[in-house]
Prior knowledge:
The mean pLDDT is 81. It is built from 6 helices and no strands. With 149 residues, it is mostly helical. The termini are far apart. Helix 1 (9-30) packs across helix 3, helix 2 (36-43) crosses helix 3 (47-55) and helix 4 crosses helix 5. Helices cover 72% and strands 0% of the residues.
Amino acid sequence: MPRYADLSEAERDIVKRNCVRFREELGKELGEELSQAEIAQLSGLSHDSIRNFEQGRRVPDVTSLRRLGQVFGRRVDDFFDENPPLPDPAMRMIAVRAKIIGRLDDDLREQIFDFVAGINHKQLERIKALKDKSRAEQAKRLKEFKERK
């Protein structure tokens, strides 16, 4: 990953424009303008970092590009491409879901998380029961095999 000093002015400008472009594209897809603060929240980066990237004061490091890429459905290389390909729709859904969950009030959000955790807990219990049943059947077959000898 090139350092800021290693990039030409044109390359730094491409990264800057793509940071803005990708935020605006995602906003259009969601049907509303996304602020730098919202991108910061979705990516786990600071608002100052997003502002500095978009104003060309700093070029994001690899970790920041990966985080932004997850939000925008983009690869790290897309930030350096003057004509980047279309975003990955599956990756973009992460941002859409996070945005929707962020709009929910705290009580409803907690209920949803509890519901999902309950489903996951039930699935784990079923898997454990199937494993236990399978082990018991294997032990029974092994015992029968040993008794035949």
